[in-house]
Write a structure and sequence with these properties.
mainly beta, Neuraminidase, five-stranded mixed sheet
């Protein structure tokens, strides 16, 4: 079986994660505390037990259920929608293909196939997909993949018929290329942010411990959150000249991340949540309020800090200038965090305002309440949000996904897509 696309630890730990298939509470003491986990709830068909309860509920009363939607995918690592009103879901397979899921049915063939352009396996491959806000009109979408030389490519494609499930594509047009010194910590997540820019999560370049110091090096794009200006069609119509392009140069909007495997923006508040895979001991969820995130300049601490703990152990890096996570957990709980989403859908009111995340290695899904994140940050990392494991034995959760209505899905790297329901 292929290795985890988010290989997260030192090279020794990487061997262990490869065998797995490729990635807490208020903390007055040194160890994070999680609310005791719920029993696993995974079903093949919808059940009446997952009916909406009418209002958000506390973590200790929240029940989560995963309902199988589709299966048979080859190493799926992401799911998203096009925002075009079609109701389609697009499933990213690490080997280089994007499949369309329409009304619970997998459309034959591939929407996109770049298998012959990429290096796949381990943490490499086709890793990210984002659709332009004007996709329904311009057919433009963006991908993040590892090229034949092992480097990160962010590129644009254009579909000749945006409504087609099998369009003729023009591209790729390269927006960004970042050299990768090692084969792990590629990041790979891309999102259109609330500011209209294309956001890109870049890992620190790999190996273990960030040996090149990329995450804290302002001259490196590795270990950073980047953003590229994406011009609208209306803006493009106002521009002149044959050299005009619909995007700008990549800007560093945050530093100090190790391997931001999945990040997302709260659809209601615009706040940024980052699942950043840890080194030897700690996994973390970073949080940045919208205004601060869009102002740029946040430093998440790696490789001076692993979560809220000095790195390497025994070091004294000082706390000034760093933004600490709002959730962390030790490797006795899991070993490869998968970032998720704050639920803002309408089907399951009990889940509203809950940030869901998972652990690839341990196979669980957990949640924390988003409304406490700013308060946790204000404590300068001395307190963390409580979280609760809501589903155990959830396979190998490589990612979450969100549809146009804000409903959430869990992607099992083994090939199954689940919808997330709650009561």
């Amino acid at each position: 079986m292929p290795r985890n696309p988010r290989l997260t630890a030192t090279l020794a730990t990487a061997v262990l994660l490869a065998a797995l298939a490729l990635a807490a509470g208020c903390r007055p003491a040194a160890e994070p505390v999680a609310v005791p986990p719920a029993e696993p709830t995974v079903s093949a068909e919808p059940t009446t037990s997952a009916e909406p309860s009418g209002a958000p509920v506390a973590l200790d009363r929240l029940t989560l259920e995963l309902v199988k939607v589709a299966e048979g995918f080859d190493a799926p690592v992401f799911l998203t929608h096009a925002g075009d009103g079609s109701g389609r879901l697009f499933v990213v397979e690490q080997g280089g293909r994007v499949k369309v899921l329409r009304d619970g049915r997998v459309v034959p063939g591939a929407y996109l196939d770049v298998a012959d352009r990429i290096t796949s396996g381990g943490e490499r491959g086709l890793l990210g997909l984002a659709f332009d806000r004007e996709f329904a009109n311009n057919g433009r979408f963006y991908v993040n993949y590892t090229d034949k030389g092992g480097d990160t490519i962010v590129a644009a494609f254009v579909a000749d018929d945006p409504a087609s499930d099998t369009p003729k594509l023009t591209g790729p047009t390269q927006l960004l290329k970042v050299g990768q010194p090692y084969s792990n910590h590629n990041g790979g997540c891309i999102m259109i942010g609330p500011d209209g820019r294309l956001w890109i999560g870049m890992g620190d370049g790999g190996s273990g411990g960030d040996p090149q110091g990329n995450a804290q090096n302002p001259k490196s794009l590795l270990g950073k959150m980047l953003a590229i200006e994406i011009a609208s069609d209306a803006e493009m119509a106002k521009r002149r000249g044959p050299a005009t392009k619909p995007w700008g140069k990549p800007e560093v909007v945050a530093s100090g991340v190790r391997n931001p495997w999945r990040f997302s923006f709260d659809a209601e508040t615009g706040d940024l949540w980052i699942g950043d895979v840890g080194q030897n001991a700690w996994e973390e969820i970073g949080f940045v309020a919208r205004d601060e995130a869009l102002a740029d300049g946040v430093n998440h601490g790696w490789n001076a800090w692993e979560g809220t703990h000095p790195y390497p152990p025994g070091a004294s890096p000082g706390r000034g200038g760093f933004t600490f996570p709002v959730v962390e957990y030790g490797h006795d709980e899991g070993n490869s965090v998968t970032g998720g989403y704050v639920y803002r859908g309408k089907k399951y009111p009990a889940l509203v305002g809950t940030y869901l995340f998972a652990d690839f290695g341990a196979g669980w899904v957990a949640g924390t309440k988003a409304d406490g994140a700013s308060a946790a940050l204000a404590s300068d990392g001395t307190d963390l949000l409580p979280y609760r494991v809501l589903v155990k034995n959830a396979g190998q959760p490589s990612s979450f996904g969100e549809d146009a209505d804000g409903e959430l899905y869990l992607i099992d790297y083994g090939g199954t897509i689940f919808s997330v329901t709650a009561r």
